[in-house]
Amino acid sequence: MNTSSAAIRHKLYDYIRVADTKKLHAIYNLLEDDIEQTNEWWRDKQLVKELDTRYNALEDGADKGFTTPQLIDSIDKLRAKKYGR
Fold it and tell me: Superkingdom of the source (predicted)?
């Protein structure tokens, strides 16, 4: 199978949009554990530890972070690089 991940996502999204209730429940039951883990990020101790570390670095001044205008400028540049706009 040589289909890109983006193409697969689009196909699944289109399928789920029009699927009947029975098929939706079947798909959900198949993926329920993964979906619940994704939705409950706070249970991931390693992720929470990393977030706490980064938050503390910002609070202590060890990491200066970015201002909102800097972030927006960076996003605009990345968007222009990727999409040529």
Answer: Bacteria
Query: Between vectors from CA 35 to CA 75 and to CA 22, what angle results, nearest 5°?
Result: 120
User: What's the full length of the chain, in residues?
Assistant: 85
Give the integer Cα–Cα distance in Å for 31 and 25.
Answer: 10
User: Is residue 54 a contact partner of residue 63, using CB atoms and an 8 Å limit?
Assistant: yes
Does residue 85 register a pLDDT over 70?
A: no
pLDDT in tens, 54-80: 999 999 999 999 999 999 999 999 999
Helix (H) and strand (E) counts in the chain = 4, 0
List Cβ neighbours of 47 (8 Å cut-off, separation of 6 or more): 41
pTM > 0.85: yes or no = no
